[in-house]
Amino acid sequence: MSKWNKHAIKANQFAKHQHLFRCPLCSQPMRMVECKSLLCTNQHCYDLSKHGYVHLSSRAYKTKYDKQLFASRRRMCNSGFFDPLNEAMTNHLMEFMKPLPGRTIHHYLLDAGCGEGSHLSHIQEKLTRRGISELTGVGMDVSKEGIAAASKTYPHPLWCVADLAHCPFANQQFDGILNILSPSNYAEFTRVLSEEGCILKVIPEQCYLEELRYLYKQNKNMPVYSNDNTVSRFKEHFKLLNAERVTYRFALNADLIEPLIHMTPLSWGATEADWHRVKEMNLTHITIDLLILCGKK
Ligand SMILES: [Zn+2]
Question: Where in the numbering of this chain does the 23S rRNA (guanine(745)-N(1))-methyltransferase N-terminal domain appear (predicted)?
Fold first, then answer.
């Protein structure tokens, strides 16, 4: 398919779901005009990029994330590294999106802080396979590199560069919000989540990547990890329906060591010598230990 065809299909998709969006500057509704821009009633204009995403952040951000990190993250996601997590999240979402006989409801799922988009895309595929066919995924991230990578790779969801503090969405549009290993803005999440919708927040548990943590702890006196504060903050904003701990060990091929150490923020500040030591550890398995907080308003 030519680039222009893809662009036109994406523009149509934005137009079809334009009611989801509101202007991040003035909060007014937006509509797709001339197959190329989202325009608000005050004439603030946001163009569809050539890769098919919309830049809806009122400010330009530089994040610590870079192309290599997103490429590494995608490599790990496609290796099945997060598959049990995605499966568990899909199970929670199914509780809220059950297909009802004789009724077709169109569902909207937001991934807030979607990075390069693998989680959203994989979870959307799983939901579709389970019969949730009327579903639009929307991925937002403050990182332009992440969103550009997402929209180049995954054609189905709508992708936008956006700022968590000014989510460019109208009130109560989403039946589900995913927030995976990523910062939150609970006031905005509450505003855009529907009355009956659910939010799934994923946070690391004590043993997440412990094989790597051990190395850094030796090095830099990393504090003991606790997510108590995160859980209580979540409970201040949402009714906690369920907290599921997902723990497993993932077998690592030698060629996954490099993307593994590059994908995690743990590696920020690591020196070449540290990375060399990780490679020399000949890791055969790595522990994934995460907590899914499932809440509703
Ligand atoms: Zn506006």
Answer: 21-56
Q: 219: CA distance to ligand 1 center in Å?
A: 49
Q: What is the CATH number of the domain that holds 58?
A: 3.40.50.150
In this prediction, the residues of the chain whose per-residue pLDDT falls under 70 are: 1-4, 59-65, 214-225, 265-270
Q: What spacing in Å lies between the alpha carbon of 54 and ligand 1's midpoint? A: 14
Neighbouring C-beta atoms of residue 98, cutoff 10 Å: 11
Give the domain extent around 76: 3-296
